[in-house]
Amino acid sequence: MLNFPILSVTLFLPIIAAIVILLIPRHQEQPIRIIAAVATLISLMLSIIVFFNYDQSLGGIQFIEKIIWTPDLGVSYALGVDGISIPMLVLTTLIGFSAVFASWKIKERVKEFFVLLLILLTGVMGTFLTTDLFIFFLFYEVVVIPIYLMVIMWGSSKRVTKEYAGMKLTIYLLIGSAFLLIGIIMLFIQSYLAFGTPTMDIFALANLPFGTTFQIVVFALMAFGFGTLLSMFPFHAWSPDGYAGAPTAVSMIHAGVLKKIGGYGLIRIGIFILPVGAKVIAPIIAVLAIGNIIYAAFICLSQKDLKYIVGYSSVSHMGYVLIGVAALNLISLNGAIIMMFAHGVMAALFFALIGNLYEKSHTRNIDELGGLAHQMPKLATGLMIAGLASLGLPGLVNFVGEFTIFVGAFSTFKVLTILAVSGIIFTAVYILRTLGTVLFGPRKEEWDHLEDLQGVEMIPLLVLGAAIIIGGILPFGLIDLINSGVGSLIAQIGSMQMGGIL
Amino acid sequence: MDITLLSSEIFIAILGLLTLVLGLALPKKAKDLVGIIAVWGLIFILIEAIFSFGIEASLFNGVYMIDSYGSFFKILFIISAILVIMSAADYLVRFENRKTEFYSFMIFALLGMVIMAAANELITLYIGLELMAVSFYILTAYLLNDELSAEAGLKYLILGAVSSAILLFGISLVYAISGTTVISEIILNISLQPLLVAGIILLIAGFAFKISLIPFHMWAPDIYQGAPTPVTAFLAVASKAAAFAAMLRVFVIGLPIASFDWNFILAILAAITMIVGNLVALKQTNVKRMLAYSSIAQAGYILVGLIAFNVYGLKGVLFYSMLYVFSNIGAFAVATSVEVVAGSTDIKAFNSLGKRSPFMAAIMTVCLLSLAGIPPLAGFVGKFYLFAGVIQAGYLWLAFIGLIMSMISVYYYLNVAKAMYIGESQDVTPIIPSFSAQLALWTCLAATILIGVYPAPLTNLVQSAVTLFL
Question: B-chain residues within 8 Å CB-CB of A134?
Answer without folding.
Answer: 384
